[in-house]
Design brief:
Helices cover about 90% and strands about 0% of the residues. The protein is an all-alpha fold.
Amino acid sequence: MSIHDTIVVDTNNSSKEVEVRAEDELRAEDLRSQRLQNDIIEQDKNERKDYATVLFTVTIMWLFLVLGIFIAVGKGSLVYSDSVIITLLTTTTANVLGLVAIVANYLFKK
């Protein structure tokens, strides 16, 4: 076998090796990309749960505070004008419905 033939054979073999190595690296990079995407989805899911729990807790506490104010007003312990009570009830209702809508929209995307 001549030197030229040896170089051609070595070049062809190395091209196949390079091609196989490149395909392996591409597969490894695709797998890494999929794993990263899965990690992002998992982290997002966990954060959604955490934020939903915090918002739910804050909303419940706020509602109990407003309920306490209404009970105190009803007993005569606190004295507020009718417009203040109506405003408190309206803003509380709007806040609760708004938070529920925002959280539900975020948690259950279409």
